[in-house]
Design a protein that fits this description.
Layout lengths: L4 E4 L3 H13 L3 E7 L13 E5 L11 H10 L4 E3 L9 H9 L3 E2 L4 H8 L1 H10 L15 H11 L3 E4 L9 E4 L2 H10 L22 E4 L5 E9 L5 E13 L2 E7 L5 H17 L4 E9 L5 E7 L6 H8 L3 H9 L17 E8 L1 E2 L5 E2 L2 E2 L2 E3 L6 E5 L6 E2 L6 E9 L2 H14 L1 E3 L5 H9 L1 H4 L9 H4 L27 E3 L3 E5 L3 E5 L9 H10 L14 E8 L2 E8 H7 L5 H6 L12 E3 L15 E3 L4 E5 L7 E2 L4 E7 L2 E6 L4 E5 L7 E2 L4 E5 L8
Parallel strand pairs: 1-2, 1-4, 2-3, 4-5
Antiparallel strand pairs: 3-27, 6-7, 6-8, 9-10, 9-12, 10-11, 11-14, 12-13, 14-21, 15-16, 17-20, 18-22, 19-21, 23-28, 24-25, 25-26, 26-27, 29-36, 30-32, 30-35, 31-34, 32-33, 34-36
Helix pairs in contact: 3-4, 11-12
Length: 674
């Protein structure tokens, strides 16, 4: 069956990337967007865009019921989940299929078998795929963690089987850190050494693995069609990470032939075992002796699929569509064709290197992407847009390719020099330093660049892997916390709510705007001789986004002054210009000043409170964990600034907090319990 109408159940750069392939292949693309994404550049790449009411992920991009209802209403024949959100939710995939809509991913059964890391580990063992020393069942007592550490040797990892994107992994370097973790969860192992892990604890489903020091993180990008044809498109090296989250991805990975053959054999066996159909990634660790160990399978398209496309010349989304339509891989690719050249992907995020890569957000005041041979930019934002703090911090991906790795690194450096993102602190400067390091260039890095100069304690690191350090100069582009009022909202009739994001000030003359539909010519009505200035007006009517191309001069006559700032920017004078109001941006996420009250522990950014391991009246010491917040999918621990007693906990777990909002209050020092 030909898939002509495809809804993309995602946002940002991955949605934009899928829309482009749908456009190239002549299919109708349908976007869904949260309120915070209204008017975003990526929504305008779709043929249709529909509003998902809500501000956060749970209300919007994780709301499978609402997305499925929109898919039915728009007569979508397929749903592409992208990555993250609902892409690995077997219940949603099953609901999509039950509604008679094609799910552009593996079957729900395959997602269940591979999406749980502990179950995937057991499957790998049943296929004689090498696995890291670890446990196959959830840990039940703290003593089990101690015993495993003593047997396997520290460091060890406590892993959430449902975690993804580097989340849900806790590294424990020694027994003392196990005791500290227990204390963070309110368990005193001194008083109760045989304490169990509570069934309601976030650790209740976790399993253990040995951390392999010195291993590289290697992936295989795989595709399998409905006839069982399997293609290992490329390998990737994703070893440059921070907090278990990938920073730099490269393709292909540097492997011995025997190691490559082993990874190919294991990947094919894993896909065949669950009758996997579609695109997916198998992840492994490869040690310094080229011994490989299974990590997990990601049953979806990966963020870094782009570097595979760069060295194979294939569009992986187009192959996903072809496979879903019943096509054979052999009709599209040479399953034995070698890759060509080397590619590197850099994730540009709204995280500030000067503040430990703290998520920032903000409004983009200026934007210029690099260009030239071998440079691809997957972005979803435009200048003037505000980065929603409720979602991922990814601004864009730079995908750089060249005939050699050395050439790709040089091209990356040139691309970063051309990149300009004003108004938002971002991670570009981090990559400049990483790429310039001689050890990275030679693939021999063993420790942090500049570590000795920074006076830090020497630390051995995995080969080709870095830790973030704090010797960063302040970003030259400060957050623009003041910006102009944007957006026009008027009501026409009794039921139609119209919102626009044309850059205009607030309009109150709704009747004049309604009359405009009868008096303003559109671009399609204009004759070649009619030399007018045309502007795009983006509107949302009853939850659906529309773009009108209108005559600017006529708008200026009908709504004098309303569009003055926008029209003057393109050289059109409005009869009655008005001053454009300024306001403090509600989206500004400049870090809060330290509270004037030394007893208050505040949120450094807009976030969600994830965990409170303390209680009112509890004594804490300086450095003790008192709260964990999450912003843009990044967890941020908050610690006690001094010894003291917890006086108040005004925020409940799960609630949103604003920048500078008090999360924990300590009792004044003179009132501390003796």
């Amino acid at each position: 069956m030909a898939l002509e109408r495809v809804l993309v159940a995602n946002r940002g750069e991955i949605a934009a990337r899928v829309f482009r392939t749908l456009k190239e292949t002549g299919r109708t693309s349908i976007a869904v967007y949260a309120t915070a994404d209204r008017g975003a550049a990526w929504t305008k790449l779709a043929d249709q865009a529909h509003h998902l009411p809500g501000e956060n992920a749970a209300q919007t991009y994780l709301n499978g019921e609402a997305i499925l209802q929109l898919a039915k209403e728009t007569k979508s024949q397929a749903i592409h989940p992208g990555y993250g959100f609902l892409s690995e939710d077997p219940a949603f995939a099953q609901a999509v299929q039950a509604a008679g809509i094609v799910w552009l991913g593996p079957s729900p059964a395959a997602i269940r078998a591979l999406g749980d890391k502990a179950k995937a580990r057991q499957l790998a063992q049943s296929l004689s795929v090498g696995t890291i020393p670890g446990t196959n069942q959830p840990v039940q007592t703290w003593q089990e963690i101690f015993d495993f550490g003593d047997e396997a040797g520290y460091p060890i990892l406590l892993k959430d089987p449902a975690g993804g994107g580097g989340r849900g992994i806790r590294e424990l370097a020694n027994a003392d850190q196990v005791r500290q973790l227990a204390q963070d969860f309110g368990v005193d192992l001194t008083a109760n050494p045989q304490a169990i892990i509570a069934p309601t604890s976030p650790l209740a489903t976790s399993f253990l693995e040995k951390r392999l020091v010195g291993a590289r993180h290697i992936e295989t990008q795989c595709l399998r069609d409905q006839s069982g044809n399997f293609w290992l498109a490329s390998t990737r090296d994703c070893s440059v990470q921070r907090r278990n989250q990938k920073l730099i991805e490269e393709a292909p990975a540097k492997l011995l032939n025997r190691t490559y053959s082993q990874l190919a054999q294991w990947s094919a066996a894993l896909f065949a075992a669950v009758d996997y159909v579609g695109a997916g990634t198998c992840e492994f660790l490869v040690d310094e002796n080229q011994n490989a160990y299974f990590l997990e399978v990601n049953p979806r398209l990966q963020v870094e699929h782009t570097v595979t496309e760069a060295i194979t010349g294939q569009d992986l989304v187009q192959l996903q569509l072809a496979i879903a339509e019943g096509g054979s891989l052999t009709d599209y690719v040479d399953l034995k064709a070698p890759t060509c050249g080397h590619a590197i992907q850099l994730r540009i995020t709204s995280e500030d290197p000067a503040k430990g890569l703290l998520p920032t957000g903000g409004t983009i005041t200026s934007l210029a992407w690099p260009a030239g041979p071998g440079i691809r930019v997957d972005a979803a934002l435009a200048g003037g847009e505000t980065i929603p703090t409720a979602f991922d911090s990814l601004i864009a991906k730079l995908i750089i390719s060249a005939p050699t790795r050395k050439g790709a690194i040089s091209r990356c450096q040139r691309a970063l020099a051309e990149l300009q993102i004003g108004g938002v602190a971002n991670s570009a400067s981090l990559y400049q330093e990483l790429l310039a390091d001689p050890d990275f260039q030679n693939e021999t890095t063993q420790k942090l660049p500049g570590q000795e100069a920074a006076g830090a304690q020497a630390e051995s690191l995995p080969a080709h892997c870095f830790l973030l350090h704090t010797r960063w100069l302040e970003n030259t582009h400060l957050l623009a916390s003041w910006r102009t009022e944007r957006g026009l909202s008027v009501t026409i009739g009794a039921s139609n709510q119209v919102n626009t994001t044309s850059g205009a000030t607030t309009a109150t003359n709704a009747s004049a705007l309604a009359a405009a539909s009868d008096t303003i010519p559109t671009a399609s009505q204009a004759s070649p001789a009619n030399e007018k200035t045309w502007v795009n007006l983006d509107l949302e009517i009853d939850g659906r986004a529309h773009r009108l191309t209108l005559c600017a001069e006529q708008i200026a006559k009908i709504l004098p002054g309303t569009l003055a700032p926008s029209l003057s920017a393109i050289g059109v004078n409005s009869p009655a210009p008005v001053a454009q109001p300024m306001r403090r941006s509600r989206k500004s996420t400049a870090l809060a000043k330290a509270s004037d009250n030394p007893n208050e522990i505040c949120a450094p950014m807009q976030a969600t409170l994830m965990r409170l391991p303390v209680r009112e009246g509890q004594q804490v010491k300086a450095g003790d964990l008192v709260a964990v917040i999450e912003a843009m999918k990044m967890e941020q621990p908050l610690t006690a600034p001094r010894d003291g007693q917890i006086a108040k906990l005004p925020v409940a777990v799960g609630q949103s907090v604003a920048t500078g909002q008090v999360i924990v209050t300590l009792a004044p020092e003179e009132n501390r319990a003796k």
